[in-house]
Amino acid sequence: MEQELEFLKKRRSIRRYKTEQISEQQLHDLEEMATLAASAMNEQAWFFVVIQKPEILQELAELSGRSNPFYSAPTLVVAFARNEAVSSVVDTAFAMSNMMNAAVADGLGTCFINVMKDVFNDPRHSELKAACGVPAGFECIGSLAVGYPDEIRTVPTDRRWDVFSYIR
Ligand SMILES: Cc1cc2nc3c(=O)[nH]c(=O)nc-3n(C[C@H](O)[C@H](O)[C@H](O)COP(=O)(O)O)c2cc1C
């Protein structure tokens, strides 16, 4: 148990990546862990678009208006939550968190990238979701950069401990 906790503690946001692509097995591990996340009424109200095509990553980066929004990660997983569901944003965030932890187990790094939400939900780019295979009725909640870390970050940034109250 201690070992599992130590492994989970290793997750950090990674902002430098190697160019090598992740393997199909690693991608499958992330996907499997996403599907195993808890969800309200087991609705699994999420959808993910896995983008590994450099031209498309470049295009999305340009649409974001940022110079290197994905930190040159070779894979981007864009996450969508179904509008007509009990708690789809929480469901999808849980699935993303599972992917982040699976990545650690597979020697990969991840970073949540918020700006994709603005790109995919922008009415000016309304064709994007369908073009990426997203079913109707889903909103983007963010994305995950995924790849082999090209930096070592083991020490967590400052953490608050004044966020618990006890009734016991
Ligand atoms: C909802 C959410 C949005 C985030 N957006 C970004 C982002 O756009 N770019 C980025 O570099 N990091 C982003 N992060 C990563 C946070 O900055 C990071 O998780 C936090 O500083 C704690 O560091 P750690 O993940 O290394 O423990 C985001 C994290 C979350 C949960």
Give helix and strand order, one letter per element, not per position.
HHEHEHEHHE
For the CA atoms, what is the radius of gyration?
Answer: 17 Å
Bound molecules: flavin mononucleotide
Count structural domains: 1
Give the overall silhouette: globular
Instruction: Fill in the CATH topology.
Output: NADH Oxidase
Q: Could you tell me the number of beta strands?
A: 4
Mean pLDDT: 96
Give a short synopsis of this structure.
By secondary structure, this protein is an alpha+beta fold. It is built from 6 helices and 4 strands, in the order H-H-E-H-E-H-E-H-H-E.
What's the helix and strand layout?
Blueprint: H1 2-9, H2 24-35, E1 46-51, H3 54-64, E2 75-82, H4 88-105, E3 109-113, H5 116-121, H6 127-131, E4 138-147
Helix pairs in contact: 2-4
The site of flavin mononucleotide (FMN) has 11 residues, from β3.
